[in-house]
Amino acid sequence: MGAKLRFNLYFLTIYTYLAVYTGALVRHERASLAVPVWPFQDGRFIWPDSVQDYVQYGHRLAAFILVVWILYVTWLVFRDYKHYRVLTYGMVLALILVALQALTGILSVYTGVNLYVALFHSLIITILFALFCYLCMLGARSKKKSFTHSLKRTFSGSFFFYQNML
């Protein structure tokens, strides 16, 4: 796994955590229905006039950025790493999960924060975050493996050094 993909996966995971935090902030500020129509109030953008509106719009913006970033990382994986099935399937699963996450977020607004919809919304983001943590773990392992592999290739002529590396 290259440095560019590893960088994007690490920071995408951190950003996902921050987006989860904005969702928790929506809940704690009781802003779940501050903007009762999706995506904007009354079908058009109205400047927020309360803290709850700012929190709700901030969460929606964070979710939008998350979707765009996942699309970008998926494009990177399919462009450069399509022969790694774990990465391709993982990013396809991430796309499915983020689409379901957006759908349950929209449904939670339309259903007046139905308990089952809200719980499913929380479950999906938990699975998505776990998936990103797993992909980060693979990235960390591939970095270590590629470093060791390059050392073995560089010093393969020196039998003594090669034996001590193992």
- Helix/strand/pairing category: mainly alpha
Query: What can be said about the biggest beta sheet?
Result: none
Cα(first) to Cα(last) distance is 22 Å
Give Rg in angstroms.
Answer: 21 Å
- The oligomeric state of the chains shown is single chain
So how many helices?
5
Given as residue ranges, the uncertain stretches (5+ residues, pLDDT < 50) are 158-166
Say how many strands there are: 0
Helical proportion, percent range: over 70%
> What sort of overall outline do the alpha carbons produce when their principal axes are compared?
elongated
List the helices and strands and how they pair.
Blueprint: H1 3-28, H2 51-80, H3 85-110, H4 115-154, H5 159-165
Subcellular location: Membrane
Membrane topology: Multi-pass membrane protein
Pfam families: COX15-CtaA (PF02628)
In summary, what is this structure?
The protein has 166 residues and is an all-alpha fold. The protein is 78% helix and 0% strand.
Characterize the structure shown:
It holds the Pfam family COX15-CtaA. By secondary structure, the chain is an all-alpha fold. It has one domain. It is 78% helix and 0% strand. The chain contains 5 helices and no strands. Helix 2 packs antiparallel against helix 3 and helix 3 runs antiparallel to helix 4. The longest helix is centred in the last third of the chain and has 40 residues. The C terminus is likely disordered.
Tags for this model:
single chain; 166 residues; elongated; heme biosynthesis; COX15/CtaA_fam; disulfide bond
